[in-house]
Amino acid sequence: MISLRVHRVVQRVAAHSRNNFMCTSSSHLCSQSNSQSSSYSSRLDLENVKLITFDVTGTLLAFRKPPFDIYMDFGKKYGVTCERDLIKASFKAQWKQLNAEQPHYGKCWEAWWTEIVMRTFKEANAQGANDATLRKVASSLIEHFKTDECWMLTEGAKELMNALSNVKNNGVAIGIISNFDPRLHQLLKTFKMDSQFNPVILSHEHQVSKPSKGIFNLALASYPKTMSGMSIKPSEALHVGDNYELDYVGAVKAGWKSCLITPNLNINEIPETRRISQLPKIFEDLRAFHNFLADQ
């Protein structure tokens, strides 16, 4: 069971914001019909949890503006222009295609992202999109996407990290499982979170991505043995993310506990073949998850 000492650390930090806690249960998942936030849940049992891992994109960190808008901004700096709707559609299509051709950001992540940039602008019929210019755009974008000019902490992330800063001294490890390339290490340093997480499992570095069971097994194998002097079982781990298929379904199928951080989940938009019967615990943001921990 999460130790009383861990409970008290989290409880003290969260006490001032408990009134904001929103986590209600429902017998089914549905989409929000208005701006009022809701939580649809099954019971989330934290008994015997020894490892909590977090997704990054959309969970701990968020883009300051959509990636395709950033592409447009950087393209304009080099004289490459196109319509917003075209580059938005092209970015999504090229991401999906290259991810299928070269999963886990390929063998060389810089080359993978350069290819994404070049394909995105070319397929969007951008003006001025010659190879030499697009390589310059790609180089600038690759650098930009590892800075806090591109990223920001999500709602409640700072408070949660403060509350969990001493958890590793109380028998619970805090880690990351993310479909990301090595730039995440720099981002964690930039946001002063690099010392908070161990293990940090990145899809590119291990050439396996969520929702594969393999990436969750890697996290278990990397669990710091000094925490308890022994390895842990999947049922003793909790994964927190924002994507139903990648985070929740992936974790549950790997035998883990899991919950989602998202203000809106429309289960009807997910193909039935990709759903599982077990309902997720859903929190509006990390602050709500933080408060939930405080009440355990």
Could you please describe the fold and organization of this structure?
- The chain is an alpha/beta fold and 296 residues long.
- The chain has 2 domains: 4-63 and 152-294, 3-Layer(aba) Sandwich (Rossmann fold), CATH 3.40.50; 67-144, DNA polymerase, domain 1 (Orthogonal Bundle), CATH 1.10.150.720.
- The chain is built from 11 helices and 8 strands.
- The strands form 2 sheets. Strands 5-4-1-6-7-8 form a 6-stranded parallel sheet. The chain has a two-stranded antiparallel ribbon with strand order 2-3.
- Helix 1 (4-14) packs across helix 11 (286-294).
- The radius of gyration is 20 Å and the shape is globular.
- The termini are close together.
- Mean pLDDT is 85; it is low at 3-40.
- Pfam families: Hydrolase (PF00702).
Give the key terms.
two-stranded antiparallel sheet, Rossmann fold, globular, 2 domains, 296 residues, 11 helices, DNA polymerase, domain 1, disordered N terminus
Could you give a short description of this structure?
It contains eleven helices and eight strands.
Annotate the secondary structure layout.
Elements lengths: L3 H11 L36 E4 L6 E3 L3 H11 L6 H18 L7 H15 L7 H14 L6 E3 L3 H7 L9 E6 L4 H8 L9 E3 H4 L6 H9 L15 E5 L2 H10 L3 E5 L19 E3 L2 H9 L2
Parallel strand pairs: 1-4, 1-6, 4-5, 6-7, 7-8
Antiparallel strand pairs: 2-3
Protein name: Rhythmically expressed gene 2 protein
InterPro entries: HAD-like_hydrolase_domain, HAD-like_sf, HAD-SF_hydro_IA, HAD-SF_hydro_IA_REG-2-like, HAD-SF_hydro_IA_REG-2-like_cap, HAD_sf
